[in-house]
Write a structure and sequence with these properties.
Helix content is about 15%, strand content about 35%. It has about 300 residues and is of the alpha+beta class.
């Protein structure tokens, strides 16, 4: 089997308020909550998964909504911005919609020949909606007011901010199989040809930049996609051969994972497509129930008592 990274699998960020986070991503951006579970290391905190109809890899943005956590800020050593792909011609619609919803946004601009609209979520997490240069054939999750002509398709890419480009670029190219596509100023675009979507990583080099504070409104880690555990473990060997520390395989119920920090300090994950999100709920039920990992099922009442009630 050819061992390739298939672009982004998911991105995980930190929120400060569960209800506000849920409202923004489901009611403003129109994504589907495909899984409502808990942080495996902190079961008193939710772990939300938002994506397309089934939470396809390349569409999944997840959150740890730690109630009351301090506000973070972007800087070096962090995944600083998330790009979502939207249909061509839809950005004026989104600018109007976000304006009506009083969402903080910038002006429509152009980068690498693509139109984009920058915005911030309810915690200040930096996002952008991008009209991708290549045709995106992914079917979006649609809702009232957000049909297939405007709805978010999934990820376009992610931005990493580092002080020194070279070590991070070496991991992207030599370990993960990306290639440098183009440069604009201090922004370097890397792409994998293994897949046509969610396949872009932009690296911003800021030699004198201040270090990020990883708290509310920032990204915790980014996950790269592989099809199965065989390929996952092959990449573990590649990371080790590059001289980087990497975890053992971890079962996250909906995928299997490995974690390592690239030289710029950003936490990378490699995650499998299998088994997916319909293992413990039907398609129709996705996101409606609190799903607990087996080790916490015996403490369901105690956990439910401390989690905020979602309206």
């Amino acid at each position: 089997m050819e061992q390739k990274i298939l672009g982004l699998h998911h991105i995980t960020a930190i929120a400060t308020d569960a209800q506000r986070n849920y409202d923004f991503y489901t009611k403003v951006l129109g994504l589907r909550l495909v899984k409502k579970t808990v942080n495996f290391d902190d079961p008193g905190t939710y772990h939300f998964y938002y994506g397309d109809a089934v939470g396809s890899p390349g569409s999944i943005l997840t959150f740890f909504p730690w109630e009351g956590i301090r506000k973070g800020h972007v800087g070096t050593g962090i995944a600083s911005e998330i790009g979502y792909a939207v249909p061509k011609g839809s950005l004026p619609f989104w600018a109007d919609r976000l304006g009506t919803q009083k969402v903080k946004q910038g002006k429509i601009g152009e980068r690498f020949g693509e139109q984009y609209l920058p915005l911030e979520d309810s915690d200040g997490l930096l996002l952008q909606l991008v009209e991708a240069a290549e045709q995106d054939k992914r079917a979006p999750w649609t809702t009232d007011g957000l049909d297939a002509n405007v709805a978010i398709k999934g990820f376009h890419g992610v931005v990493l901010t580092v002080r020194n480009l070279a070590p991070t670029a070496k991991v992207l190219t030599d370990v993960l199989g990306y290639r440098l596509l183009q440069q604009e100023g201090n922004r370097f675009r890397f792409i994998t040809d293994a897949i046509a979507t969610a396949n872009i990583v932009d690296v911003m080099e800021e030699p004198t930049g201040h270090g990020a504070v990883n708290a509310g409104g920032t990204n915790h880690h980014i996950a790269f996609r592989v099809p199965n555990e065989e390929v996952l473990m092959a990449f573990r060997e590649k990371v080790l051969q590059a001289g980087l520390h990497i975890t053992e395989k971890i079962d996250r119920n909906y995928f299997y994972s490995l974690y390592f920090r690239e030289p710029g300090g950003i936490l990378f994950e490699i995650a499998t497509d299998n088994p997916g999100f319909v293992t413990d709920e039907t398609f129709e039920e996705l996101g409606k129930n609190l799903m607990l990992p087996v080790q916490y099922e015996g403490k369901r009442k105690q956990i439910e008592a401390v989690l905020p009630v979602l309206r």
